[in-house]
Write a structure and sequence with these properties.
By secondary structure, the protein is mainly alpha-helical. Helix content is about 65%, strand content about 0%.
Length: about 270
Amino acid sequence: MQEWTPRIAEVSRRLRSRADAILGAVWFMPQDGLPSLAARVACLGRVPGTVAAALFAPQHPASVATAVDEAWRHHAPDALVEARLRGATAYLADALGDEPPGVDRAVAILRPVVEAGTMAGHPVYAGLRSLPWPGTPLGDLWRACDMIRERRGGSHLNAWTAAGLAPVEIQLLTERWRTTTNPGSTTADQMGYSPAEIDDALGGFRARGLVDDAGALTDEGREHREDIERATDVQEVELVEALGDDVDELFELMAPWARAVVAGAGTIG
């Protein structure tokens, strides 16, 4: 079994952070009626809403299931995959230009990295792996970032479910643990969890000594959440090893693109 190391944590978390910002084009682009949850799961085909809800936890399961099932009444999966890619790459072109300097090199580094991960236990990542590469510099860059995000997302889902947490519980722990937010970050109430669901989860945490009376993490609660993140990190070791000595070069290439994508929110499209 792979042991956790600070190096695995540093590289895998930074890779996810850089990729998330570039992937953020899909949140910042004009939506034009695109059903975002169905478009995200469309790489797996026309899966029932309950299946999507299981994959996209900790989002509220009833909200996800309803949205996805409704989307399939009006959209085909292949069309949503294409629309999502088309909208995201159009946003990236506006933010970065059609072929930003270094993009070919970044894609050359990223492709073997994102193809190095085990697909078992990572169904959405596996669905993305089954798709052909877009074949354009920005399309390939964005697809690679999508794969990085879904790979670590699957690892995180595996880690917190193994820790015995419910979706609302991991969401509340994460809100109190993180010091910064990623594009697309949201809160339990924004996800549709009721005040009663949130209060019940926090009450359970207080009984376990994970949060204090004000709802903030205790030292024990913070360590519990860190354990989950470390269990996530360990599952990303294949990507970290595939990145190897190219890590600094890749992050230097991706950093200004990530900033430009986020800066364009609300001004592009």
